[in-house]
Amino acid sequence: MKSFFTPKEVARVIDISYRQIQYWDKTSFIKPSYRRKSKYRLYTFTDLFQLKISKVLRQRGFSIQKLRKTIEALRSLLPQVSHPLIELTFLVDEDKILVFNGDVVMDEKATENYIKFRVRELREDVDKLFPSAGTGATAGEFAGRKIGYA
Fold first, then answer.
1. 123 three-state secondary structure
2. Which end of the chain is more exposed for a tag (fewer CB within 10 A), N or C?
3. Which helix (H) or strand (E) holds 9?
4. In the predicted model, is pLDDT for residue 145 greater than 80?
5. What is the CATH number of the domain that holds 110?
6. Which residue(s) pair with 4 in the sheet?
7. Residue 58: which residues within 8 A CB-CB, separation 6 or more?
C-alpha cells in the first residue's frame, strides 16, 4: 500500500493540475504532510483524501470560502474518528459532514442533498495506479506536520 505521494502523483490520482496543487499548498489550503528542507513535498493518503473532496466540492459549485470551511471542519473531525479512514463513508452538504463506518444506502432525495465519499474507492484508485507499494522514502526523512490517518 503506497503511503506517500509526490505532487505529480497526486495530480494523476486526483485528476487535478500540478499548478492547482501548488496553489493550494502556497495558500495553506491543503499543505503536504511532509516537506524536506529542499522543499521536496510528500502528501499522505489523508492529504490525498482532502484534495479529492476539495476537487469534487469545487466542481459541485462550492465557493472557495465554503470549501475552506468544509475542509477545516473535516480536519477537526478526523481526530475524533476511531475507525480506520479506509472504512469510512463521508456525506457532505452545504452545512454538514456526516461520517459513517462502512457504506451508506441513500434514497434519490438524499443523493440530491449530499455528496458521498467512500474512502475505500480512493484507496482502490491509488492501488490501481500504483500496484507496487512503497515510495522509497520514509517518514523519518521528512520534517513537518503530520495528519497521520494514512
1. helix
2. N
3. helix 7-14
4. no
5. 1.10.1660.10
6. 44
7. 67
Tally of domains in the chain = 1
**Distances from the Cα of 142 to the Cαs of 26, 27, 150, in angstroms?**
18, 21, 16
Task: Give the amino acid at 78.
Answer: L
Grid cell of 97 as nine digits: 459532514
Average pLDDT, the chain: 85
The region of weakest confidence among 23-32, 92-101, 132-141 is 132-141
Which positions ≥6 away from 36 have C-beta within 8 Å? Answer: 141, 142, 143
pLDDT in tens, 60-88: 999 989 999 999 999 999 999 888 999 99
